[in-house]
Amino acid sequence: MLCLFAATVFWFFNALNKTYTTNISFPLAVDFNSSNYVAVKPLPEEVRINVTGIGWSLFRRSLGVKVPSLVIPLERPSEVKKIVGSTLPGLFSNQLEGLDINFVLTDTLYLNIQPKAGRWIKVSLKNVDSYLQKNYTSVSDVRIIPDSIFIEGPMNQVTRLKEPVELSLIQNNIDENFRQDVEVILLDNQFIRRNPPTVAVAFDVEKLVTLNDSVKLTLQNIPGGSKPAVGKSYIKCVFAICESMAADFRSDSVHAIVDLNGFKRGSIKVVPKFIGLPPHSKVLKVDTVRIRL
């Protein structure tokens, strides 16, 4: 057994001292000024080359032991969209010590590197009530801190991004005052860096109570010489007002207004507008009014 082991070792070391030709995949690095440019697609990570060399060098590199990346330097990276494999031997010849390049097996390397740009962009949150539980409403302005973020990335993505960027809450059925950090998500712009990536969002909410009532109907801007005929002087409606204001609410402070400015003679059917409602109130249901001029 010892003799067999010694013979095997002797044969192995003797074989590694001979010259061979083989195909090896080498790690690849694209060198460019990352302060001014950014890759918008993953860069190629390896290149396959047919090489000739001493068995020791080939064995070590085939195992990936101390194999430095082959470097492709680019002075104007945004102008280079592809690199043909046949142009690489001259570039790599000085980087492969102890190996001779016969030819490059990789046909073409594709690149997409663009100039880097940055700008400040506003963020906002709309349709707050869509995130609230039924019968709740927002009773304050939405506060966003900071209300702008700095974005940096490929020039074409940064310049075409519209503002303000709309925030989206992951919470639903909110029934209390909201105070949370919200991530600024830029859809289809994964190469853009955000600073900061999150903003603090706050707004107040309150429960609504429903009131059924009748409100006095008032006509405005009646055309000269006409005597409008209205079938009713009060109109039925359903309001939703904040719970904190329900105790002090007086229906006689609310008026249903129909503005007749611009209407010609004849019969019209309109939905009145309301004045005098408490802040943040909603009109849930109201009867239409038929008026003959």
Description:
The protein is mainly beta. It folds into three domains: 17-111; 116-203, RNA Polymerase Alpha Subunit, Chain A, domain 2; 208-292, RNA Polymerase Alpha Subunit, Chain A, domain 2, CATH 2.170.120.30. Helices cover 11% and strands 45% of the residues. The chain contains four helices and 23 strands. The strands form six sheets. Strands 9, 16, 18, 19, 21 and 22 form a six-stranded mixed beta sheet that branches. The longest helix has 15 residues, at 2-16. The N and C termini lie far apart (119 Å). 13% of the residues are buried.
Instruction: State the secondary-structure class.
Output: mainly beta
Give the proportion of residues in helices: 10-25%
Q: State the major sheet.
A: 6 strands, mixed
Q: How large a portion of the residues is in β-strands, by DSSP E?
A: 35-45%
Tell me, rounded to a whole number, the average pLDDT. Answer: 84
Element-by-element helix/strand order? HEEEHEEHEEEEEEHEEEEEEEEEEEE
What's the total number of strands? 23
CA distance, first residue to last residue: 119 Å
Q: What's the alpha carbon Rg, rounded to whole Å?
A: 37 Å
Q: Sum up the overall morphology in one term.
A: elongated
Number of helices: 4
Uncertain parts: none
How many domains, in number, for the residues? 3
